[in-house]
Amino acid sequence: MTSELSLATVADSAPAVEAEDTKQGMLALGRYLRAADYRFVAVTPDTHQHYLKRMAARPVRDLRDIFGWSRAFREDQVSIETFRLMQQAGVLMRKGELWRSRVRWSSLGDLLCAHSAYPTDSADAVFFGPDTYRFARLIQSHLSDNAGSVRCAVDIGCGSGAGAMLVAGACPAAHVLALDINPQALRLAALNSELAGLSNIHTAQSNLLADVDGTFDLIIANPPYMMDSQERAYRHGGGKLGAGLSEQIVNTALERLAPGGSLVLYTGVAIVAGRDVFLEGLQQRLTNQPCDWHYEELDPDVFGEELLKPAYAEVERIAAVGLVLTLNR
Ligand SMILES: C[S@@+](CC[C@H](N)C(=O)[O-])C[C@H]1O[C@@H](n2cnc3c(N)ncnc32)[C@H](O)[C@@H]1O
258 near 219, Cβ under 8 Å? Predict the structure, then answer.
């Protein structure tokens, strides 16, 4: 296997033994970063771009430049050990005379999550960003009172597996399913879970919950909610103003939650002329449903740069919101 192969290429077309080698290589790289006390907080694409611009004339200094900021580097700017581990993990990508890492590693508390390098242009990019941190706070706040009642949980659109890992850690007796439509996300979610030593997470490919059976005590989701002209899986919410997947998740949860079970949904909503159309739809949909629910605006203004795009011509802001819905027993 050459280091030019992407993880996707390796897993899709190379013999199983090579895919296993790459996985072991990624685990070794993750353990190496943990041992080095590596930490990185993922920022918005705009902030990332500003930082890279500012740093362009300065030499690459450390592991955070390579695995957090996705900077290009010369082989002699990293230790022999770092370069060897990157080769074994299949994450080295040539950029002229330089190299870059195909993956980023970001911290979530004490967890370390591998996800796609900046910029996340490709259709199968694996997301992790400021939304993930807000989603994590919503999950942790719900679990602070409810962890004991969770036996079977599912993370819809798990991406790097961040949400599933928080649930699995807080509910060690629970079986946690991490689902995504993107196989690349499932590979990284499985890897990140193994790196964290969480054996109660199982990954599976599924369009929302359509390809798995059963009911759940806890459903968590941070689905795509943007109107993305490229329709990338990690960004494009579909439906009216990007709310399509979020609405489908509410409908699915009403069918697939066990009695007393909860949906913890983090999403973004387009506000038009002061109105939150997603909330208005929820009020209608949940009237006379056997459930209690709480809805909260978590951040009044996210992804402001999107408002420059034609699809957002009527939108005054995008808000990050949290919905916690609990079915009656
Ligand atoms: C915004 S990312 C969130 C990832 C992760 N949950 C997090 O918080 O970092 C949304 C994820 O949903 C996945 N996704 C999009 N449409 C989906 C669908 N119909 N069924 C399952 N997953 C889907 C994407 O592939 C992506 O990984």
Answer: no
Is residue 266 within 8 Å of 221, Cβ to Cβ?
yes
Residue 224 near ligand 1, beta carbon < 6 Å: yes
Please tell me if the CB atom of residue 182 comes closer than 6 angstroms to any atom of ligand 1: yes
CB atoms within 10 A of CB 105: 28
261 in ligand 1 pocket by Cβ < 6 Å? no
* Nearest-10 crossing angle of helices 183-195, 162-170: 40
Reported as type and span, the H/E element at residue 262 is strand 257-272
Q: Measuring CA to CA, which residue among 251, 213, 8 is closest to residue 123?
A: 8
User: Do residues 274 and 306 touch, judged by C-beta distance below 8 A?
Assistant: no
pLDDT digits (tens, 9 = 90+) for 230-247: 899 889 999 999 999 999
| Unique residue bearing structure tokens 């499932």 | 186
| Strand-pair category, 216-221 with 152-156 | parallel
CATH topology of domain 130-327: Rossmann fold (3.40.50)
- The pLDDT > 70 percentage for the chain reads 95
Q: Is 10 helix (H, G, I), strand (E, B) or coil?
A: helix
Distance from the CA of 110 to the center of ligand 1, in angstroms? Answer: 22
Q: Per-residue pLDDT tens for 11-36? A: 333 345 567 888 999 999 999 999 99
Annotated domain spans of the chain: 7-116, 130-327
Q: What is the pTM of this model?
A: 0.93
> pLDDT digits over 139-167, tens only?
999 999 999 999 999 999 999 999 999 99
How many C-beta atoms lie closer than 10 Å to residue 69's C-beta? Answer: 19
Predicted confidence at residue 18, as pLDDT, reads 63
256 with 209: CB under 8 angstroms? Answer: yes
Counting ligand 1 atoms within 8 A of each CB, the residue from 105, 203, 222 with the most, and so the one to mutate, is 222
Q: Which residues pair with 179 in a beta bridge?
A: 156, 204
